[in-house]
Amino acid sequence: MHLPLQLKIKTLTLLSIFLLFSLGNGEADVQQKAPDFTLGDLSGNTVSLKDYRGQIVLLDFWATWCVPCRKSIPELVELRKKYRNKELVIFGLSIDDPQHYDNKYLLGFKKRLKINYRVLRADEKVIKDYLGIKPAGIPILFIIDRKGRIVDKVIGFVPGEAERSLKKLL
């Protein structure tokens, strides 16, 4: 009588674990339509992702205090230079707290690191839509194809990975 009960308990436990992990945390995933957003840039202009359909878009979620994020920026600057005529758009989505890091600070940071792409202020909704409730860490890159689908996601700074992914689309 104990064996069937133990078997039932193990089965229910495994099923519960499977369901728990299959639910995810609400983050954007590869091959889904990229969640649209409208955000402000550092000059106060608004940017809507939907306006860039037909182009390849790279979204870089980062922060000024993040060392791997800072290491990844020169590579993104070079990608922007190399592929600017190939319909590649790069947006840096800063998750810095605006109360501690205002636009003036971010503009200075952008100038010091010679960032040649637009920097946007990520709000809570776009962070939740793309990174989920419990982000895995930053930087996180999302590559979006011309049809507006997420085709790749790179977690952390992996030298050369963004370009490898982009070459499939360019």
What does this structure look like?
This protein is an alpha/beta fold and 170 residues long. The chain has one domain: Glutaredoxin (3-Layer(aba) Sandwich), CATH 3.40.30. 38% of the residues lie in helices and 21% in strands. The chain contains five helices and seven strands. It has helices at 2-23, 67-83, 103-112, 124-131, 161-167; strands spanning 38-40, 46-48, 56-62, 88-94, 118-121, 140-144, 150-155. The strands form two sheets. The chain has a five-stranded mixed beta sheet, covered by helices on one side. The chain has a two-stranded antiparallel sheet with strand order 1-2. Strand 4, helix 3 (103-112) and strand 5 form a beta-alpha-beta unit.
Search tags:
single chain; 170 residues; alpha/beta; Glutaredoxin; 5-stranded mixed beta sheet; two-stranded antiparallel ribbon; 21% strand
Low-pLDDT stretches are: 7-26
> Fraction of residues in helices?
25-40%
Q: Beta fraction of the residues?
A: 15-25%
Helix tally equals: 5
Under CATH, the topology can be stated as Glutaredoxin
Strand order of the largest sheet: 5-4-3-6-7
Q: What's the count of strands?
A: 7
- Regarding CATH, which class? Alpha Beta
Write the H/E string, N to C. Answer: HEEEHEHEHEEH
The shape, in one word, is globular
Task: Let me know the CATH homologous superfamily.
Answer: Glutaredoxin
How many domains would you count in the coordinates?
Answer: 1
Question: In this structure, how is the largest beta sheet organized?
Answer: 5 strands, mixed
CATH architecture: 3-Layer(aba) Sandwich
Global structural class: alpha/beta
Instruction: Give average pLDDT, whole number.
Output: 85
Distance between the termini: 63 Å
For the CA atoms, what is the radius of gyration?
19 Å
